[in-house]
Write a structure and sequence with these properties.
22 strands; 47% helix; alpha+beta; 711 residues; five-stranded antiparallel sheet
Amino acid sequence: MPASVVINHQLEIVQFRGTTDLFLTHPKGKATFNILKMARPEIAFELRNAISKVIKSKQRFRKSGIEIKVNSDVRSISVEVVPLKIESDEPLLLILFTEHEQTEIFAQQAEGGKNNSLAKDRRIKKLEQELAAAHADALAIAQEQEAYTEELQSANEEIVSSNEELQTVNEELETSKEEIESANEELTTTNQELQTRNDLLNEAYDYSEALFATVHEPMIVLDKNLRVKSANKTFYSMFNVKEEDTEGVLLYDLGNKQWNIPGLHELLHHLLPQNSHIHDFEITYTFPGIGEKTMRFNARRIIQKKYHEELILLAIIDFTEIKLYEKKLIEAKTFAENAVKSKQQFLSNMSHEIRTPLNSILGFTNVLLKTKLDEDQNEFVSAIKTSGTSLILLINDILDLAKVDAGRMTFDKQPFEMRKSIKSILFSFDLKIKEKNLELIKEYDSKIPSMLLGDAVRLNQIILNLISNAIKFTHKGKIVLSVKLLSEDEENVTVEFAVTDTGIGIAADKIDSIFNVFEQAYVNTANAYGGTGLGLAIVKQLVEAQGGSIRLSSKIAEGSTFSFILPFGKTNIKPVEEIEILKLDSEIKTLRVLVAEDVALNQLLIKIILNDFGFEPEIVDNGKIAIEKLQTNTYDIILMDLQMPEMNGIEATEYIRKTMKSQIPIIALTADVTSTNISQYKEFGMDDYISKPINENLLYSKIVELVKKQK
């Protein structure tokens, strides 16, 4: 049997076979079966490499030509490592040792030195090969050792990491312990707080019971069957019931079933099942012995957890007196609104009734002034015109106030030259200033832009009113109109106007009320100086409606200063000059004009004006006749008065547009300046309007414009 051993992967010999003394020896010292420690030194290195290769590859490996020296002999052996494929608890390897024929290294000298030299060369070459193989094996072993070292290092790191994790777990356990202790403390504290809250709840219950008993509004508590659990004193007092007759009784049976209110019955019936609530449910109900009550009910479901009971809290608000007060307020409001409407209607009617004859007076005055008159006649007619114009201004003041009150005052922003406008205003007072021997001074800021954007007519109206008052109440001295630039930016300017006089002055206690409607500084002012007390009220509202402000400073016997501030836009557009002298359009020849006007004087005046234009007028008394004429004749344009008997101008216009489908131009003639709203007239189907007294130039230009557009 060849020499062999069986080893495990730990290189421990588990079985000897055959004679192994030539290959293996027992080392000195501690007994061991480790094959590498028992192997002869010459073969230990080769044996280690062979075993390592077989363990890795699981393939048998043989190493031959290993020389060992036994005494003086050199012997050649081979080592073969074979993995055993047997059932075992651990993998095993079989190592076979084989001795080859003996080689005499130190044989007798061959003949001649040549043979000896060749033998040495072969020996050296073989040793070199073995050395190279040993070097390669050593390198492989070193790499393996390095890999093993890395594995050991990795294992060591894992062990360290595991230790750290164990340390962390230990710390977490310690923290958990502390948290548990903290939680126990919190539970103890919470338990104490719950006890405190329970005490507070009991106090709150007692408090709510006290509130329930003393609250001013009636309140009752019902159980789920709508039986009364309790009620407060106000309920018993207001509805005249007793406590002993109430508790435990069905709500609808209270007071001889006087609480059997159908609407309330239905709401309460669904409140608990639907978990809903009642909010401000209003009922007007007549209680026997109490009378009619207007009430609001509020109800909500509440849970009494202590007894596991569902309850309904019903609160009642009695606002019978409030309802009566609201009714009176509504009646008062309606009355006030009707009064305002009546005032507006009165002013409108007054305007129409006064303006109608006045328009005729002024119109015929203008016609007379065009005729040849002697000096006296011209003076008389001029006086008539002046008086009529003054009356027109008074009516305009009244109507302007009405328009401001109604929020219907409009402001027309157009380019205008303020310096020129101021000069024109002051010139109109020249005669009056000379009559009273006063001095009128203008102080105009040169920094004000020459062209501004605003309502020049309203500005003139404000200044005219203030200067007129100054002249009226100043007997000697001077009146100063100051116009000063306050601020300016790229688009707007702010200007301050001040009218200062040396007149009678106004008492300090009258300054706040001087701007009120029909208010004058003294009771006898109207008798001594005339006026209605409307001028300053209109001035204030005109200023404030344009985003401005006005103030007054005055001293008795020294004079007054009225100052106001207004904003204006900036513009470079030049204003359009009004042509005072009528110029007839050469393109317009004879036009047929249908005029609907019921006042005979106005008919005559319009006929004269239209004849002067070279037109052919046909006059009718109302809208109905105008429609009949239009159905049988052809006209170029219609002048339609608004207020006429039988059929007014609005009704006639709607018929012409909607029924007759006619698009003939229609111009409205109106004395009611509170209704002169161009958008409103267009809704009626009219193309334009002109107010009375008629401006002949304006009338002619509007007729020509509409006729040309129609063609």
